[in-house]
Design a protein that fits this description.
- The protein is of the alpha/beta class.
- Among the domains are: about 150 residues, Rossmann fold (3-Layer(aba) Sandwich), CATH 3.40.50.300; about 80 residues, Winged helix-like DNA-binding domain superfamily/Winged helix DNA-binding domain (Arc Repressor Mutant, subunit A).
- It is built from 15 helices and nine strands.
- A five-stranded parallel beta sheet has the order 2-3-6-1-7, covered by helices on one side. Strands 4-5 form a two-stranded antiparallel ribbon. The chain has a two-stranded antiparallel sheet with strand order 8-9.
- Helix 5 runs parallel beside helix 6, helix 8 packs across helix 10 and helix 10 crosses helix 11.
- The chain binds adenine.
- The site of adenine (ADE) has 12 residues, from helix 8.
Length: about 350
């Protein structure tokens, strides 16, 4: 190895920016290219076509579900279909009432406003959204105390598309204002993910056999973003080791990344192991698990648990989190007697 570290930009090593650009390249540009979520696509098609036929701006739409399933991609596709300009922001980026007022008053007729992570929007700011969504007006309070008065500004017709990983944190007044619909994105099937991976491999110019695509799919947490990430890492592995990406090379590359045969990462395994080794398999509270492995509660709840539950390795009970016998088996730990079911 050379003693001087390579200069990232000049050495041709992809940097994070290039990786992000790649993500844009892999994003489906048309409904036909968007694989999966068939029910949502059909409903959106009806909503958008009906609005177009009536010459109206589509009503407000809310997407929710675990990260990486394509909420932002759907918003882009809606903007494309309606030929609308899309303004993108996020709950935490809107810090003051004035920030939202400025975004709303700068919209042009027919624009789409996309607010990601809407559950992180400050409650005071959220209240500005209610009249804006319902009646297309912005209430501005001028002055303070007894002399304060409200003036109403009429806004251009617009469509709010919001996304959240935590629907339960949205207030019901906000939720009820998504009159176009609230759509839950579902995890993808392995077959759908394999098709997404094969499509991405073609775009990247990486030859990938069907069984290798399936191997990536089976470790991708039923999530396109993870699948594309793993594909890129497999491509790096194949380039550096000068090998073709067959099923075996994919297995080797992903094992090296600590992504096991079920798609669990070291953080997933740490959660299961902590519950088993420190809390007798549970039930144990979320806070306690988070403290035991020094992980954020929100990451455990939003990223890890949905997948572990989907695989049947973890259960949420009224008394806390509990692992299943399948979790012991996957980690190679003997299943304790009280969890063993006797087959008569
Ligand atoms: N890339 C990310 N999500 C996708 C999807 N649903 N279909 C096709 N390509 C994708």
């Amino acid at each position: 190895m050379s003693s001087t570290p390579p200069k990232t930009q000049e050495s041709g090593i992809p940097d994070a920016r290039e990786d992000r650009n790649l993500d844009q390249t892999l994003r489906p540009a048309s409904w036909d290219e968007y694989i999966g979520q068939e029910g949502i696509k059909t409903n959106l098609h009806i909503l958008l076509t009906a609005a177009k036929n009536r010459n109206q701006t589509p009503e407000h739409i809310l997407f929710y579900g675990p990260p990486g399933l394509g909420k932002t991609t759907l918003a882009h596709l809606i903007a494309r279909e309606t030929r609308a300009q899309m303004r993108m922001t996020s709950g935490p980026a809107i810090e003051k009432v004035g920030d939202l007022a400025s975004i709303l008053t700068n919209l042009s007729p027919g624009d789409i406003l996309f607010i990601d992570e809407i559950h992180r929007l400050n409650k005071l700011i959220e209240e500005i959204l209610y009249p804006a969504m319902e009646s297309g007006v912005l209430d501005i309070i001028i002055g303070k105390g007894p002399s304060a008065r409200t003036i109403q500004l009429e806004l251009p017709p617009f469509t709010l598309i919001a996304a959240t990983t935590r629907i339960s944190l949205l207030s019901s007044p906000l939720r009820s204002r998504f009159s176009g619909g609230t759509f839950r994105l579902e995890f993808y099937t392995d077959e759908e993910i394999a098709r997404i991976v094969s499509r991405s491999a073609t775009i990247l110019g990486v030859p990938l056999a069907d069984d290798a695509a399936m191997e990536i799919a089976s470790r991708s947490r039923f999530t396109p973003r993870t699948a594309n990430y793993l594909l890129k890492r497999c491509r790096d592995f194949a380039d550096v080791r000068e090998t073709t990406l067959d099923k075996r090379a994919v297995g080797d590359a992903l094992t090296l990344l600590s992504v096991d045969t079920l798609g669990l990462t070291s953080a997933d395994r740490a959660i299961l192991r902590a519950i088993i080794e420190k809390f007798h398999g549970g039930p144990v509270g979320l806070k306690t698990v988070a403290a035991a492995i020094a992980e954020e509660e929100s990451a455990i709840e939003e990223v890890h648990e949905p997948y572990l539950m989907r695989l049947g390795l973890l259960e949420r009970t009224p008394r806390g989190r509990q692992v299943t016998p399948k979790a012991y088996e996957h980690l190679g730990i003997p299943v304790p007697e009280h969890l063993q079911t006797t087959l008569l």
